Amino acid sequence: MAMPTQTEHVERVEQTAQSSAGLPTRHLLSPDRTNLPALSWQHSRNGLALIIFAFLLMIPRLVNTGHLRAGLILLTISSCFMFFALWQRLYPFLIPACILLGLSIGVPLAALTGGVSVLWGLALGFLAILFLGRTFFNVQVPWPVYPAVPLFGVGMIIAVARLPLTLSNSSIWAALLVLGAGLCLLRGQKN
User: Fold this and answer.
1) Which residue did the predictor score with more confidence, 134 or 6?
2) Cα–Cα distance measured from residue 47 to residue 40, given in angstroms and rounded to the nearest whole number
3) Domain range list for the chain
4) Is the pTM higher than 0.70?
C-alpha cells in the first residue's frame, strides 16, 4: 500500500478540521451486516406461537372468576380515586388510589400464589404512592417505603415457604418450558 503524499495528508487534515470544528473525528466504515445473525420471520412467528400457547396453558390456573371480579371492582374504585387525585391535584386521594390499585393486582392472583400476590400488591401500591407522589405532586416524603418493605419481606418469606408446593405442580413447569422455548425462538437463538 502506497504512502499518502504530503498534499493528500494536508487535504485530509483540513477536511477533518472543517467537519469537526477543530476536534478530531474518525471516519468509520459502514458495519458489515453479513456477520449479524438474521432473525427470520419463521423463528419469530414460531416463538410468538409458543408464547401464546404457554399463556393458554396457564390461563386455567390464573383465572378465578370470583377473584378476577373482585380485582376489577377494586380497580374501578382505584381509578375513581386516581381520577380525582390527578384532576384536582389532591395528594390525599392518591394514597387510597395506589393502595387499591396494588390490591387489584394482587387479589386476582391470590389463589395462584397462596396470598403472596396480595402482600406484594400492597407493597407495589405503597411504592406507587412514593413514585407517583414525587412525579405528579412533587411530594418528597419517604413514608410509603416503610410499609412497602415489610410487606414485600413477609411476602418473600411466604413465597419461600410455599416453594416446594409450587415446584411440585407439573402443569406450571410445562407452561414455563413452552414459554422459555418461545422466548428462545423469538430471540433467534438456536440450540
Assistant:
1) 134
2) 11
3) 41-187
4) no
